[in-house]
Amino acid sequence: MPKKRTAAIGRDRNGSGLELWSKGRKGPSAQPLFNPSSPESLAALQRTLNHVPEVMVKVTGGGRDMGTASAHIDYIDRHGQLDVHTDEGELLNGKDVSKFLVEDWKLDTIIHQRHRQAPLPGEKDKRAKLVHNIVLSMPQGTHPQAVLAAAQRFARENFALSHRYAMVLHDPATDPKPKKAESGKNPHVHLVVKAVGEDGERLYIRKDTLQAWREQFAHALREQGVEANATPAAIRGKAKSSSKGAIHQHQERIEKWRTEPQEEQKKPIPSVLLQTNVERVMNELVNGVEPGLSGKEKLMATRENVLHGWMATENALRDKGLIKEANQVLDFIKNLPSVKTDHDLLKDKMLADNVRLQAALAVKTPTVDKVVTQGNDLTPVR
To answer: Model pTM?
Structure first.
């Protein structure tokens, strides 16, 4: 991993119960801790109990050649219509920005140093990334300029003097192509980071990296006066979807085609995976055949661990005399959503859409016996 500076996050080393943020520790040896004597712990607890808006930090891919890197920059700056903020404090605008950045970052040098042929059609692309594409987002209603300022702070703390980067704010109110915004009505920043640092070290992004980045981005937003939280999803009773980015975007295109004037757009190519998921739900509804999918046991085990952590937190608060907070934790536990797989979520959505469901039930539903290899937890239509 390249050397990098990180935002200052309070650290508590003694406590019990849930750890509401990672405090920089990594790996399976990092035990969940909660210290009721710590103002940082109590503040993080209150943000979670009060359902403060959660930040989103997502890696959406990355260019493996100069063409794809340039095309992504063209996409995020709307081919020169939006301002591009650089790591050197410059504000760039115009159709030639992508070409300038690709040349200024010397991406061709990386290709020459570690040359690997582009894959043939159908082959997996094994080339190393030249850039990482990252999205930092907040829910609708957050002031876009605050999101931009927090993203700039986040980028400086992580990449300044080590990795070249550039960013573009997508404000739904001013976006020249709002229908193309990946985060819909949410204000968000597209951040492009050069994968190889100025010292030659490559940036690797792991799961714990993303959680640390969420915490840093939330910290930067709070410095802007924006209420923001970065609690792990499981602690909030929300299971992570197994939906891959490309699959999720394909579902959005299908839903857009179904709900908007179809003469303005082409019908998306049907998704075999999504169709199989729907057929499995229909097979259960019509024939009573429950799919033998793994994953529910793992979700239940995770929920069990979360509940143990919350109860330990409640006990720690009560022992400290913080009765109000302890009772809030109990109420939070009672209101945790039930554990559901992606298959369960898809079934709920189909049951809620009664008109389309009745139309589908009018057609005989075949028994599903095909195997899908892209994960066992089925992907919901969002």
So the answer is: 0.76
